[in-house]
Amino acid sequence: MGKETLIVENIGIRFNLGINAKGYGFQDMMKKFFKAGLKKENEFWALRNIDFSLERGDRLGILGLNGAGKSTLLKIIAGVFKPTEGKVIHKGKIVPLLELGAGFEKQYTGRENIFLYGTMLGYSKKYLEEKYDEIVKFSGLKKFIDVPIQNYSSGMRSKLGFAIATIANPEILILDEVLSVGDGRFRRKSEKKIHKMMEGGTTVLFVSHSLEQVQRICNKAMILEQGQIAAFGGIEEVSQIYAQMLEESSEKE
Amino acid sequence: MEHFKAFWKRRTLLWELVKRGIKLKYRKSYLGLVWSLLEPLLGTAVLTVVFGTLLGRGGKDFPLYVLCGRLFYGFFSSSTKSAAKSIRVNASMIKKVYVPKYLYPLSSILFNYIITGISLFVLIPLCAYCGQAPSLHMLYAFIPFALLFLLTYGCGMILATVTVFFRDMEYLWDVVLMVVMYTSAIMYMPGKIMESGYAWILKYNPLFGVITNFRDAIMGKPMEWNYLLMAAAYGIALSFIGTFLFYKKQDDFILAL
After folding, report:
1. I want to staple A48 with a disulfide (CB 3.0 to 4.6 A). Which of A12, A89, B88, B137 is the partner?
2. B195 by DSSP, 3-state: which?
3. Tell me, what's the ipTM?
4. Are A102 and B12 a contacting pair at CB < 8 A?
5. Which one is predicted more confidently, A127 or A30?
6. Which stretches of chain B are DSSP H helices?
7. Of A110, A82, A79, whose CA–CA distance to A95 is shortest?
8. Cβ(A249)–Cβ(A243) under 8 Å?
9. Which residues of chain B does A99 touch, with a Cβ-Cβ cutoff of 8 Å?
10. Which residue from A32, A82, A121 is facing B97, i.e. has the nearest CB?
């Protein structure tokens, strides 16, 4: 491995819609369990032939319409999904921030969740204790830190999630739509934080529907279309292609 | 070896999850962890009144007899139930961060084990109450207690795996637990059954074996090694099957959640 922190090698993932289809008969259950007899025509490749690599400090924006496979790709890189084919090679710690709210325990208070979620991300207890004040300060939730998370708004939850996930400088940070939830002030604050992390050499993978935001943060971009890479390269070039794509698709309508 | 290293790296997370189980169980209750002592005591009192006083069964040490069985069965039932649910309950975490998934059922069994460990202290006042003098046999009590964990771990892992794909298992298991309870001789003396032709129903229930041995140890009687050996065989086989099944199916969990 050279300078690359993340190598995605020819990844593909195949889903079978049958596994989630309603079928409560005994036979359906058995089929689900043994994965046998699930109809072939229900199968589809959510992603295929995804092959790219990123270097230290790269910020990759992933663009694409709904259902293009953006979140699935991030989940594979985060290790939540196992790809049907291909593999992901990474150097160092990956910190994922998928969807809003992270993996919180609803009955736990903010304080308890900092330690639980921090441990899940692989930080030691001692480290979290050291950084505790910083996390609380960044999230701006000092007043609510001893309130159970179930009483938090979704914005508050994602603020806390972001604050925990970005407390260290992980080698790879995965952000799925997280920056679009908080209020304007928090959004600016978190963008600033990401910029600071990038200077520290963190590689960022970033999904957003806002092209403008991607342009502001990323130096590279990728367009996914029906599970395949439609374009990959520098941000300027790719965002031009993307703007064109959007225009074409709206003309069709 | 590699698996063990990975496990060792995650020990702090396992402990966090165990702590969560204990904390959430007693959250917002006034007496908190005191319930782990109070509940077995009160439960034993009820059973002693019903079966001892009203139905006139058992002797002076009947409360001690009941308590031993209840503690073991209580652990088995609550941890297998929470292991069965563990993947579903933690779905939101499983979908967001990668963590070895066996930590979820394992932690739910472990936290119940710790609570049961605390509950065992109730035996001290009850031994005094029933006039049970301390004896060397009591030292053997840890053997059935360890085997109980092995049995529960095996069942728990199997249930955790199957329940993801077959939710009805949660309800079906309640029925199975009822059968286990009545064939473990918790509230009655098994003497009559053991002499009848139905003795096999109890003999082949590994929980009956560990409970009987634990009770014997506490009541100052020697171990019945053939029961222990059988329970150990069950425990090893179930743990092996459970671990294997979980390992094989864990990557599919996320698709079925």
Report:
1. A12
2. helix
3. 0.85
4. no
5. A127
6. 2-9, 11-26, 35-47, 62-89, 91-94, 103-119, 123-130, 142-165, 169-182, 191-195, 199-203, 206-218, 225-256
7. A79
8. no
9. 95-96
10. A121
